[in-house]
Amino acid sequence: MEMSALGDESLIIVMTAAATADEVDAVVRRLSDLGAEAHVSPGQVRTVIGAIGAGELVRQQPWEAFPGVERAVPILGPFRSVSRDVRSEDTVVEAGGVPFGGNRVTVIAGPCAVESREQMFAAAEAVRSAGAALLRGDAFKPRTSPYSFQGLGEKGLEILAEVRKEFGLPFVAEVLDPRDIDLVASYADMVRVGSRNMSNFTLLAELGRQPRPVMLKRGYNATIEEWMSAAEYVLGAGNAEVILCERGIRTFETATRNTLDISAIPVVRQLSHLPVVVDPSHSAGRRALVPALARASVAAGANGVMIDVHPAPEAAKVDGPQALPPEEFSSLMDQIGRIAQALGVEMAEPPGGQSP
Amino acid sequence: MEMSALGDESLIIVMTAAATADEVDAVVRRLSDLGAEAHVSPGQVRTVIGAIGAGELVRQQPWEAFPGVERAVPILGPFRSVSRDVRSEDTVVEAGGVPFGGNRVTVIAGPCAVESREQMFAAAEAVRSAGAALLRGDAFKPRTSPYSFQGLGEKGLEILAEVRKEFGLPFVAEVLDPRDIDLVASYADMVRVGSRNMSNFTLLAELGRQPRPVMLKRGYNATIEEWMSAAEYVLGAGNAEVILCERGIRTFETATRNTLDISAIPVVRQLSHLPVVVDPSHSAGRRALVPALARASVAAGANGVMIDVHPAPEAAKVDGPQALPPEEFSSLMDQIGRIAQALGVEMAEPPGGQSP
Amino acid sequence: MEMSALGDESLIIVMTAAATADEVDAVVRRLSDLGAEAHVSPGQVRTVIGAIGAGELVRQQPWEAFPGVERAVPILGPFRSVSRDVRSEDTVVEAGGVPFGGNRVTVIAGPCAVESREQMFAAAEAVRSAGAALLRGDAFKPRTSPYSFQGLGEKGLEILAEVRKEFGLPFVAEVLDPRDIDLVASYADMVRVGSRNMSNFTLLAELGRQPRPVMLKRGYNATIEEWMSAAEYVLGAGNAEVILCERGIRTFETATRNTLDISAIPVVRQLSHLPVVVDPSHSAGRRALVPALARASVAAGANGVMIDVHPAPEAAKVDGPQALPPEEFSSLMDQIGRIAQALGVEMAEPPGGQSP
Amino acid sequence: MEMSALGDESLIIVMTAAATADEVDAVVRRLSDLGAEAHVSPGQVRTVIGAIGAGELVRQQPWEAFPGVERAVPILGPFRSVSRDVRSEDTVVEAGGVPFGGNRVTVIAGPCAVESREQMFAAAEAVRSAGAALLRGDAFKPRTSPYSFQGLGEKGLEILAEVRKEFGLPFVAEVLDPRDIDLVASYADMVRVGSRNMSNFTLLAELGRQPRPVMLKRGYNATIEEWMSAAEYVLGAGNAEVILCERGIRTFETATRNTLDISAIPVVRQLSHLPVVVDPSHSAGRRALVPALARASVAAGANGVMIDVHPAPEAAKVDGPQALPPEEFSSLMDQIGRIAQALGVEMAEPPGGQSP
Asked: Of A280, B330, C224, D47, which is most buried, counting CB atoms within 10 Å of its CB?
């Protein structure tokens, strides 16, 4: 039997050393039934079957459930719309008039959670004057303990909208529950999917059917390939405005809350046309590490960083240990600006330009 | 300063070597404000502060956000209702008349997804006659690819109810979306939270407010402590009928889909009074490994196992490679029965007893 | 171009989407120079090159260093002598007259480190009377802290030899340094490579050139494939008497010292003809978990277990928290015996048979 | 009972909920025997014992082997000489006249393995002219497969010495076997301990007894705390000239060979006075990612980077896919120089200064 086109949609099926001729035949028969060409190559120890014309349907068959099959190796990964294979130039996503993507660094900053009007006004003033282009602040918080502060809800979104009006800073806020999407999207300039929800496919699909740009944080347990597939859910449902956000993965190391996967930046920029930003604050879990990680992210080519800043970290209701006080954030913005300049990268400004 | 009661609710706050007297004072002041006693002990290199009477409020302060604090170490873990500290005897949970927990092994079996009436009838007949006490079969499936089969929805639940009537087997089914809880709970004898949703706190809290028993799978990215905290969400919201299900964690090993954490069985049985079962099928991802892992689980003291069984694995729409065909399941049931007997553990039967 | 034999030694080279014709040519040219057949298949997005007749030399080329190459996927794994592909029946290894492998469970027990003559006599008496077939006890200890007890050295080996004479129990001892191989091998019935040394290729190669059987512990950081490759080093150097020992891998879970990879038992038994045993004591790090893990190992099909037993764990110089006291070991032996009997597996006895 | 000084050498011993008064007494008695003060605090659920004056001896007791003890928590970490607690200013290590440490970035570059005189001359010329201060090139290689190229041995070291003379570049080379230390140290300006040998305590102790500076790579499986303890072995044996090298850790992510732990840079710089450099090449395993990771390392505050450079990567015998060709290295040096300048950090030069 001859193999004429081991193309990029192919599937390689490796049989066990003990596989019988009947078992090989059963695989070949199923391939034929599905319209794929099967090319059988007997080796010294194992038989290998190349499947040509292996589209989605062929690839999703439970090949490893067939007797005598050791494993099935697809040639291509499972994602498409997010891939540079289908779009080679960088996508630029706009959130409240602020661009993300391309040869540009965009800084998001603010408290982890909205706690009060006073706290948000103080935070917005500080991050605006230091040069941030977008504000963060969440109204709904996912907490590992049921006894912890869970956020202000709609009241928090109202505060954020008021702050936006006062300081000209658009904002991003997290959505946890599909039933809150309309509410959050009616206030926020960008909605965020948190790390714990990256594989909440119900939430992803519904976010694909609404118009706000979506910031998709990487699950701390997710491979880059799974993260791309999650973005695919949103794009597949109709929303192409997706920003990826690396925020650390879970490893055996306990000196940091998570291990920031800095390599994900160049990997994603090679694989995908979507913008990718970094959240060093949630990754580190400790304020003292944040400036080094933020600088590293920009130097690695991230399209932006999202930094926890709190007017009084030691009074914060959520994640105080990782928040920078305003003066440290301001000093970090200087460093980021100098690195961007050294590398020939532009810093994005808030909608009305730099504050006077 | 004297320390009179470094009790079990205490918090130990370790200062950095460079911490100043003012920084120590700021911590002590906050402790006093919160009603805790602070005991300051200067060491050769670092000062250590013991906080006595450190309840929930004290423990949730962002201590590591205070200047000069290196780390804060609580003496006790964050969970309560699930702990043997509050209930020393084993909890027995009933699902459709089938008991889980205590000195007893309960076997759940069936296909990963409901595909058709024929498939479920064939599956139920096979697992019933081999001795399983409960049926599995999902109507809603979380899939990593948006292009994969997503389940039959309510139609699937109707098939399961018909099968229950015909074969006398109660069933467990997964719920993915808080909006589907009422629907799934109106059909199923037990609702299941999948691994990807273990930290979906919205879902957990709502499951705590409905009456069906809940099977809570461990997140493949979750520590045992986080898993206990997730169970705490359900119990805290009012539902004490929780069964824990170990199903493997993500590690660097790629020979199996996940690494079954067999040690979690004795760890959980020491820590908690709740029943704990094992899903070897999803952990392994490959049929050939399932019998060994199921036997190991029972020998390690699991209160049950949940096994994927499909009348024709190579035609399965979901997870075929891990499903056992009926004859292999039957042989596994024999082995499980012999191990249970050797260890003096009872096998649970379906509501009407063994089939004739 | 036609592909006639995508055999089991093949290599699949996937080009990037942007790869040029020249880059494809450079790969094809190198393949030809090395005597392999190259089959080029242009896909919709990427070109894929199948290399036929790709022996060791072809597979070790730095393909991913070639411009335009995305990745190179070998069809077969890197090991041979240890594989069931070359020997389908179980290998039985003998250590001091005690068999390991086949349908048989062999129990090794004793203290982690030799501390004194009295301690070893007490330990040997206890494990012998409970039914263990081999004694453990190390004279050289690898310690993470340079300030910890490092072992008795040759004096420890002399004690072990005396104990063997007195109780008729052969013993296994660890070797850390290639310069100590002759010394340890002159006393011990089997030499052990510890987890931290699994990738010490110098040590492995030299153990392959001496006659004692070798117990090769899995690195707690090593994939099963790497562990098999490490065994390949010993077999490749001329010593086919290798026993594999699973002892847990490092994961994010901190409730146990390491996560026992129970799935490795059926995986290794499928892949390799070598005996595989389990060390639950070092994996768990805590005595209370050891019996459950030992029972699980036997139920999963392990060819044996190695258990830390100490006459007075709270006085142990090394790893006391994981050692069983004699009465708990004796009770565990009963449980193991009953599980083995339930599964139709034989228990190995010490050279002279059961003690009277 | 009163506790007067919960100092930094203290140990907190937490009893189980079920611990008896006798079990508490046994712990207290042992503490007294060892000369420590025991302070018993009964809590609502558990008793907690604080041990004051808990030196090395007390901390190394197997507390968790005592009946009724749940866990023992030391207040301080296990390392000393490497800690900023004992030396607050940065240590500067000199290798062949090239400084590492302080406010300075030092670049090491060259091939992974010495293959031939021609290869090393071409490599040295390229890295010297681009501005590297030290050359790398190994004569002994640890290989996962016993069938791979193992290095040129002493012949390789001779080539390196000749290159040093010709180009004025000192060099670092790996040592694998304690028996090769004298040989490697007689040629090299700095000896390197590879990732797989980080826990080879025999090797570490002997390197502590010879005069060359030691570059200690982090085990890809090692926590930062274990890495510090390994450095402690070298310092403890008498050699204070140690450079730490982060090179990625093993995680579940497979898009890169290892996950570069960029957070380790600020963590180590806080914890220790020793210089810390980064090897992005071995971490990534792919050339395309190396520049981004090298830039990130410098921006994060690393004291240097070590880069694989090969005159013809596609002909390399070891690790070709990760080596940069000379022109890409030269461009990377420009970027590193600009980032260093932006952050006010000096670039180290080779002994004779920049080449003309």
From this structure: A280
